[in-house]
Design goal:
This protein is α/β, with parallel strands linked by helices. It is built from eight helices and eight strands. Helix 3 links the parallel strand 2 and strand 3. The longest helix is centred in the first third of the chain and has 14 residues.
Length: 291
């Protein structure tokens, strides 16, 4: 009965305040298969080109690379890609997403700069024959609903955040995307890889890709020679990809979710599902990772 009430209400939170399952009416274009995973990479790391791209091609996996010219990108070509290398990622079939020109954390205080930040990456993509990005990653995993309208004006259909605030940022843990409950511009990371991650951490994140949920995995460099606190070793990264392949996961880019998810559906309250998850975790009902 509670599920029926939820469906009729068309919202993510049930009468009891805890959602049994994502609300998918009008949101899901077709049945979402189990083991659907999205791979994302942040910050324009050199290893995206030298390590990640060859391995992804070997395994036949898709991925999204979120590009920024922040940090010392323009001068430091030991740690960061060139725009020619970024163009080659696109030509190899991978998605190029927008991570702001200056890696600017988007908050209520900085949202007025967002349009300029998006345009900076759009201009470079245009100059290098790369399509205008339709996906975005929130720099530093900071976010604000005040940015949604600007993103929509720039053609952004999905924006990926981290695992916070449901889990502390330092843990690198998160929840899978629940279409209909999660706002498409607040797509959560089911896992955010860290130096201390082991295969069990990757498995914990990926196994959430079931029951119409999609696991979004967040990586930085593999390795990240400029930011060691979010680096993944090449050895570990190869083990993660091998696991996903052997276990039959379908690995795609963020833009490809449009095959299953209607991006025009915006939950009335974009933070409702976040608060529900936090409450479940606090009450000890999520089994440590949520179903």
């Amino acid at each position: 009965m509670k599920r029926l009430i939820c469906f009729l209400m068309g919202v993510a939170v049930c009468v009891s305040g805890v959602a049994d399952e994502p609300v998918t009416s009008g949101v899901v274009k077709k049945a979402i298969p189990d083991k659907l995973v999205v791979l994302t990479f942040d910050d324009s790391a050199k290893s995206h080109f030298t390590v990640a791209m060859p391995l992804l091609k070997e395994y036949g996996f898709g991925a999204t690379f979120f590009i920024t010219e922040g940090f010392d990108f323009k001068e430091n070509k030991r740690d960061y890609m060139t725009w020619d290398e970024i163009r080659q990622l696109h030509e190899a079939g991978f998605e190029i997403g927008n991570h702001t020109r200056d890696h600017l954390g988007i908050t209520d205080q900085t949202v007025g700069q967002l349009a300029e930040q998006l345009e900076g990456i759009e201009a470079q993509c245009r100059a290098h024959g790369i399509p205008k990005p339709v996906t975005f990653a929130w720099p530093g995993n900071a976010w604000t609903p005040a940015a949604f309208e600007v993103m929509k004006q720039h053609g952004i259909v999905f924006a990926r955040r981290g695992g916070a605030p449901e889990y502390p940022y330092e843990e690198g843990r998160g929840f899978a995307l629940e279409p209909g409950s999660d706002h498409p511009l607040l797509v959560p990371s089911a896992g955010d890889a860290r130096p201390k991650w082991a295969l069990a951490d990757l498995i914990r994140a990926a196994e959430q890709a079931r029951d119409s949920r999609i696991a979004i995995l967040q990586f930085h460099g593999v390795p990240d020679t400029a930011h060691d606190w979010v680096s993944s070793s090449q050895q570990n990264f190869e083990a993660y990809l091998k696991y996903l392949k052997l276990e039959g996961y379908r690995v795609i880019a963020l833009r490809d979710l449009r095959e299953w998810v209607n991006t025009e559906h915006w939950p009335q309250d974009p933070t409702a599902v976040i608060e529900t998850r936090k409450a479940k975790l606090a009450a000890g009902k999520a089994g440590g990772q949520g179903k």
